[in-house]
Design a protein that fits this description.
Two copies of one chain form a homodimer. Chain A contains eight helices and twelve strands. By secondary structure, chain A is α+β, with helices and mostly antiparallel strands. In chain A, the strands form three sheets. Chain A has a five-stranded antiparallel beta sheet with strand order 1-7-4-9-2. In chain A, strands 3-8-5-6 form a four-stranded antiparallel beta sheet. In chain A, a hairpin with a 5-residue loop joins strand 5 and strand 6. At the A-B interface, strand 6, helix 3, helix 4 and helix 6 of A face strand 6, helix 3, helix 4 and helix 6 of B. Chain A binds a DNA duplex through helix 7.
DNA sequence: CGTGATTTTGACGACACTCAAATAAAGTGG
DNA sequence: CCACTTTATTTGAGTGTCGTCAAAATCACG
């Protein structure tokens, strides 16, 4: 099961949501000539999922590849005893699907919000890749990035405690999909969390209660404030970065040039 | 940092160790025509590392790609507070290196045993990939496999207890590099562990003591026996598979047709 | 405003970590 | 080949973080 997070901003100004999967400059669409873009347009179609609908189930045959244009998807792995582990969240620009022959989904994918995606037939997708080596190399680079991200998460789960895990999670969330809602007011940076506490717990290898308690710890430590459960204001970024174990606060690279 | 584990057996009978990086049928060498093999031979060279030598350090510039032909390498991630997490072990046929421009190593790589590898200059490697789309697609497929393997490890670290983790580790080890030492005698399957307990602990997100205690638990439960600390006999595979959370015992696919 | 889901808070227990020491194994030099 | 040193592994006792069970408070939605 291929799962890649794009490093390039997908939401190009002027594109409507329904067309954003074609016209935008995400990883796969860039580096294509006019003929390639025409082929892309001809072979792709748009799929939509309501909130909480399954994109696919664990074990299901995966013969399509899709690029998310709107919304957030969670990747869930079920254990025989009923436990869950969420191995990642995907958003606009991220790629998900099967590229191997007769591939079965390694995990389930569920829409956290309303989701729109640009879909391709696997065979068409593979042929396009073969015809555009640069595109294939881009995908390989993106796969390398995903491998590094998963590696970081392994370090998080293997060697970090609850506060460190949550701090890293909040900072990750603030950097990925909150470019516009990241309105820096005098109190801090606002982050919207599209997932409930249970999903955060299943992502960080904790329980709902521990996640909630750690949120409470951060609030009483004045690191954050919680106007609503899913809206977190990061009021002490330095403390959070320190907890997360990052060496420094990276300079933001936002589309609008902040 | 690219890191791929090969799914194809590397040790082709008849190849000497020093030539195995060229002559073998590992993922990258297969699907190449005669001209491609010549190019591969011309651009590659052999590097050797003694036991416990670093292949590269975290943060170091990575402008080479290598394919391990002999030995085992551990991938280590250091945390600011001195803790370690081993994100994987690589062996014969596995690929490691940098393919991005001005890439810095995301983690360190250290030789667990004496190691030989087949090395490529990054630019040459990338050009070869561009000229052979099938090869690039193969790498993308291998990257997908690596992503799935890392995902499985995330599930292990996030939702499994010490016994389950160690059981999964032992079974994984018995399947990857023990095709010949897997002599099934009447007592069980022999597995040789090339790494010390500390590395197992750092891989499974545990401490040395917990790993040792869990080995002791398995021994007193008659799941395993330990003739020497690094040689484990799996005497109750069914129990280990059950612990690890695998649904069934997979049929072995060994080179010799077992 | 009322119902159901989500989140928070509390009390208690268990699994794994820390600290400490003993035992076993591996390497070294005579 | 054997004493010696060094490293690795095992075992023990006590502590702490996080999980489990339970209930209250808050939020979302019709």
């Amino acid at each position: 099961m291929l799962r890649l997070r794009s490093t390039i901003d997908c939401t190009t100004p002027g594109d409507s949501a329904s067309e954003s999967c074609i016209g935008c400059q995400i990883s796969i669409c860039s580096h294509l000539d006019a003929a390639g873009l025409d082929r892309l347009r001809a072979m792709s179609w748009t799929i939509k999922f309501a909130k909480n609908k399954m994109l696919f189930e664990q074990g299901e045959v995966l013969d399509r590849v899709c690029i998310i244009s709107v919304g957030v998807v969670k990747l869930v792995h079920l254990l025989p005893d009923g436990q869950k582990q969420i191995t990642g969240f995907l958003g606009p620009g991220d790629i998900l699907g099967g590229i191997k022959r007769q591939e079965n989904a390694h995990g389930s994918a569920k829409a956290l919000t309303a989701v729109e995606a640009c879909a391709f037939n696997r065979e068409n997708f593979l042929q396009l890749i073969k015809d555009y080596p640069d595109l294939c190399l881009n995908l390989l680079t993106a796969a390398t990035d995903e491998i590094e991200a998963l590696t970081d998460h392994i370090v998080l789960l293997g060697r970090k405690r609850a506060p460190q895990r949550l701090a890293a999670f909040l900072l990750m969330m603030s950097q990925r999909w909150n470019a516009d809602t990241d309105t820096a007011n005098n109190n801090g940076t606002m982050v919207h969390l599209p997932m409930p506490r249970a999903d955060i717990a299943d992502h960080l290898g904790l329980t709902i209660e521990t996640v909630s308690r750690t949120f409470g710890l951060f609030r009483s430590s004045k690191f954050i404030s919680i106007p609503r459960p899913n809206d977190i204001v990061l009021s002490n970024l330095a403390a959070l970065y320190d907890l997360a174990g990052f060496d420094e606060i990276p300079t933001r690279h936002v589309a609008l040039g902040l």
